[in-house]
Prior knowledge:
The protein is α+β, with helices and mostly antiparallel strands. It has helices spanning 11-16, 29-58, 79-103, 108-113, 128-138, 140-151, 156-176, 183-188, and strands at residues 24-26, 62-66, 73-77, 116-119, 190-198. The strands form two sheets. The chain has a three-stranded antiparallel β-sheet with strand order 1-5-4. Strands 2-3 form a two-stranded antiparallel sheet.
Amino acid sequence: MSHANDRxxxxxxxxxxxxxxxxxxxxxxxxxxxxxxxxxxxxxALIYVASFTLGLVRGPIVRFxxxxxxxxxxxxxxxxxxxxxxxxxxxxxxxxxxxxxTRSSATLGQRxxxxxxxxxxxxxxxxxxxxxxxxxxxxxxxxxxxxxATAMPGLRPAFGPILLVxxxxxxxxxxxxxxxxxxxxxxxxxxxxxxxxxxxxxxS
Length: 204
């Protein structure tokens, strides 16, 4: 006779149930970076389509006006349009990563490279809060920095060094962690693993 507790928890839960001696091994740094590169290519294409559509609706963000006297061109940028495009790009990126991590525990790039993002406690699928914190700490600074550079041109020189220091911290903390958990993973309670590999049993 079956009970309610015996029901199949679903593919996402089955994937990330950690059992003694068979917890999934952490994914290597190079594999993770390659997955993010694949995601960046996909997101760039999506953002280009979104920007193109936005340009059709409200006009081009960048305009070129030929100058007959000099043979050159006057380039003008619509600040409101650039800011709107930046906000749309940020929202698209957040939806892509947070939605992927909470629905299938991996982005398309991570699926291609065979890695998954799960909760550090039991390797189950991340909650929305965990995924949002992870995105905000890992990719939010880059997206917000690009948006800030558009909205506040005078502060552009400061964004580069700040981002460099922040991502250096994430890289160092990831490399020094046995489970390859950077500061962003520790604060979000997440871990990046390879489902095709398991941790060896710990000798007593």
